[in-house]
Design goal:
Elements (H helix, E strand, L loop, with lengths): L4 E3 L2 H6 L1 H10 L9 H7 L7 E8 L2 E14 L4 E8 L11 E2 L4 H14 L4 E7 L5 H8 L4 E14 L4 H7 L2 H17 L3 E4 L6 H16 L3 H17 L3 E8 L2 E11 L4 E9 L8 H15 L4 E6 L3 H4 L4 E11 L3 H25 L6
Parallel strand pairs: 4-6, 11-12
Antiparallel strand pairs: 1-2, 2-3, 3-4, 3-5, 6-13, 7-12, 7-13, 8-9, 9-10, 10-11
Length: 363
């Protein structure tokens, strides 16, 4: 066994599918954002420049760590080079794949590989894998500073065998609201329906999800299409996306997009949004209940609400996963310069967004 090698192209990653999936099945800490299907879908949305460090033993993969080095604060204004997980910030969990018992080998190999990458600071967000703590300690050497900048509570629930059993586990208020939401929509909207995409209409469903989410949360619609629309379509093609859209006639009024992982039997809620004009019908609760029921009927054992512990999630799930965020800075001029210019850059960007999109918008 030698040191870490690198995968740097989508074609190169595609050739590793069989070995990657064997490694994924062997990893007890696996999560959907490290699955071959999700990563292959995600790679259709990103520019070249990423790398996946891999440790091999013969024809087998022992460990893998997807990374990127990006210009910050932006490609247009490249003050410093920032190391991050490849999926950041799109993936809700970050980490590595590793066969049990080979963690020390992986840390040694990846520590060497990361030092060879050209970067000035590392922003390690949504770390869900404690096996990477020794790697952070290795990188902290050589005069660098490491600080934990925060943590995020994520909620999930273990699913029973039936929808009726799951409803019994909910509080009375949540159970009642979930049941009433669907009835209220069916009774109040003659043209109401909930659908999932087929090959013939997947693009319409993806566009509806992107538009509903954009209308609810704001942002740049073109960027949302490029990032999430392309990701959802690619994930559908790789059979790791479940998408449910509630319609009033031809108008999408609520949607829920989830990434699925049959290996660990997890159903991962990624986006949930609804049209404010239909708020009195509680369409968000209706599509959420529909998705949870879909997960149970398809045999998934865990429904993961992913990043955040918003109040509505807490009414459906009580199991907690903590992800952590770290900032690692090297003692180099570029990192110091970035710290100096970042506040001014953010202020200028926010002002530009207000001019282009109006108050309350972000990009």
């Amino acid at each position: 066994m030698s040191g870490a090698a690198s995968i740097t192209t989508p074609a190169g990653f595609a050739t590793e599918r069989a070995a990657w999936e064997r490694l994924y099945r062997a990893d007890p800490v696996r999560q959907v954002f490290m699955s071959w299907a999700w990563l292959d879908a995600y790679l259709t949305t990103v520019a070249p420049g990423w790398t996946i460090a891999v440790l091999r033993e013969g024809d087998e993969l022992i460990a893998a760590l997807p990374l990127q080095v990006r210009s910050v604060p932006s490609r247009v204004f490249p003050v410093a080079r920032e190391l991050a997980f490849l999926g950041d910030p799109v993936a809700d969990y970050g980490g590595m794949l590793c066969r049990a018992g080979r963690e020390a080998d992986a840390v040694r190999a990846f520590g060497v590989a990361i030092r060879r990458l050209g970067w000035d600071r590392a922003l390690i967000c949504d770390l869900a894998d404690p096996r990477l703590d020794p790697l952070l300690a290795v990188l902290r050497g050589q005069g660098s500073t490491l600080a934990q900048t925060g943590e995020t509570r994520c909620l999930r629930t273990t699913l029973p065998a039936s929808w009726d059993d799951y409803k019994k586990s909910l509080g009375r208020t949540t159970r009642g609201k979930t049941d009433r939401a669907l009835r209220r929509l069916q009774d109040g909207l003659p043209d109401f329906r909930i659908s999932s995409p087929t090959d013939a209409d997947v693009d319409a469903h993806v566009e509806a999800m992107v538009r509903i989410n954009h209308a609810r949360w704001g942002g740049n619609l073109r960027s949302a299409r490029a990032r999430f629309g392309r990701l959802f379509r690619a994930a559908y093609d790789r059979d790791c996306l479940r998408l449910h859209i509630a319609w009033d006639g031809e108008r999408g009024i609520a949607g829920v997009a989830s990434f699925t992982d049959p290996v660990s039997a997890t159903y991962n809620l990624y986006q949930l949004a609804y049209d404010d004009e239909y708020a009195k019908f509680s369409p968000g609760k209706a599509v959420l209940g529909f998705a949870i029921r879909d997960a149970i009927e398809r045999g998934y054992r865990v429904f993961d609400f992913l990043r955040g512990d918003e109040e509505y999630k807490a009414s459906y799930a009580s199991e907690v996963v903590i992800t952590r965020h770290f900032l690692l800075e090297r003692p180099v001029l570029r990192s110091t310069l970035f710290d100096l210019v970042q506040p001014s850059y953010r202020a200028l960007k926010a002002a530009a967004v207000r001019v282009v999109y109006g108050p309350g918008r972000t990009v």
